[in-house]
Amino acid sequence: MIENAKRNEPNQQSRTAPPLDITAFRQALGTFTTGVTIVTARGKDGSPVGVTANSFNSVSLDPPMVLWSLARKSQSLPVFEEASHWAVHILAHDQGELSARFARSTSGAEKFDGVICEDGHGAAPLLSGCTTRLECRTANIFDGGDHIILLGEVIKFEQCDTPPLVFQSGNYAIATSTAQTIQPPPGEDPRNVSETSSLGYLLASAYLHFYAKMREQASSMELNDIEHLIVNALGAREGRTYRELSTLAAYSGRSVGPESIDDLAARALIRIEDDTVEEADTGLNGDHTRIYLTQEGQKMVEQMLKESVLVEEEMMRQLGVPETIALRTLLSRFVRIHSPLIPYRWF
Description:
One of its GO terms (molecular function) is FMN binding. The chain is α+β, with helices and mostly antiparallel strands. The protein contains twelve helices and 15 strands.
């Protein structure tokens, strides 16, 4: 007992050390990546409360126990201190907006406005769409400085395979695996398929892989590469001009000739409309000439979309759901950065 008392007693150095910079300390703690949770309960008056918390942690498996902390200045403090039960929701990757809503200093009624939920143990509100839900009985409450620490016994839980939302250095993120589960073919130079490979090479290789899939799709529909691109582009947005289609094709290293437009029109896949009144502006090169899909062309686009979904599902199966989501997120960010350089958009 005496040794424990001495060990817990602050030493002379800690008593004389200068106080920590709270802002810098917060930033240092932010480098620790955590999951994101929303903890909910219900007051004695029946009103729901909920807060976003990343202080959640597991404590014990037997008995099953978890803990989290709540700021003493929180409006929800009195309810959580008196609640017999509360529910922890480990948020899914697409619930960033929900997290932000429950992180605001607003009333419980405002936070739950329009949010679909059901009652759990102790009438604690249960949110939908989460990766995991834990229903807990309050086991104890401890002092934690400017926070209280709530310890709960888990009495029921539900989970799904949806990737969780994570929080790191003040931003939401997606957790992906760094494990190399797919090995290169025998004899393959590892530099061709490693994390150290050139980014340009990897992007080009990925494009060529999907381009090959597109060529298979085009061939099955009796379309050449450029005709396949035209139909795809019109499926994304109709009423394009010949000039716009030519510009989009140029970014993929191809060119649109009048013969491609004529062939698609002859097959009744597209129709050409000219709304000019000036004779000098007529013809495909004029910006007043618009190209649309026919009903048959729209059916072809629907088939293309179905096959594209199958390709994405196969990629998700091979890469993993979180990795596919992260890939889409990063590519979208890359395109947003560079899209101002492209005069015509796909959508």
